[in-house]
């Protein structure tokens, strides 16, 4: 299993971490699905695959919602499915300008094909690109995914840009 970028948690060793085991219980059926695994072959940000990005958003949204006492299961699942689409928007003509508002609908349609979604998951997937989607999220978990998605994107791009750079006597890696 992948691990979330920036996390020191060993996703391969669930027996030593109850919180990580709880996260895994929320999403393992999705991670085992062929359509979700297929996201690993698409680049999302720099060297980060779409699956890795989705795991990052899923895991950190789970943590925020878990700590706040919100619906962490829905946040974890919606975070994993929020970018469930299979095209490269950078190369398809016409999609560059509409991708931000278009891909949440595509992801929602694809997610519905592989699992039953509750109202929080539907809202979070369809509105994670707010304000590009115009209609704001309805649930707090949807806002968490929206903001965690942006933070993860910045971190994924920054990780690529600053990997191996020396700052004073300290190497950033």
TrEMBL record:
UniProt superkingdom: Bacteria
SUPFAM superfamilies found in the cross-reference section: HD-domain/PDEase-like
Protein name (database record): Ribonuclease Y
Organism ancestry: Bacteria, Bacillati, Bacillota, Clostridia, Lachnospirales
């Amino acid at each position: 299993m992948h691990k979330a970028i920036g996390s020191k948690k060993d996703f391969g060793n669930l027996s030593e971490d109850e919180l990580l085991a709880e996260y895994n219980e929320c999403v393992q059926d999705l991670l085992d699905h062929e359509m979700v695994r297929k996201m690993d072959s698409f680049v999302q940000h720099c060297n980060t695959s779409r699956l890795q990005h989705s795991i990052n958003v899923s895991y950190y949204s789970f943590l925020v919602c878990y700590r706040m006492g919100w619906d962490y299961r829905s946040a974890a699942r919606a975070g994993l499915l929020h970018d469930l689409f299979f095209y490269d928007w950078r190369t398809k003509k016409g999609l560059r300008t509409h991708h931000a508002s278009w891909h949440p609908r595509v992801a929602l349609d694809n997610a519905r094909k592989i699992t039953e979604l509750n109202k929080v998951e539907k809202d979070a997937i369809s509105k994670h690109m707010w304000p590009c989607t115009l209609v704001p999220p309805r649930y707090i978990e949807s806002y968490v995914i929206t903001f965690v998605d942006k933070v993860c994107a910045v971190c994924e791009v920054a990780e690529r840009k600053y990997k191996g750079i020396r700052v004073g006597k300290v190497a950033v890696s």
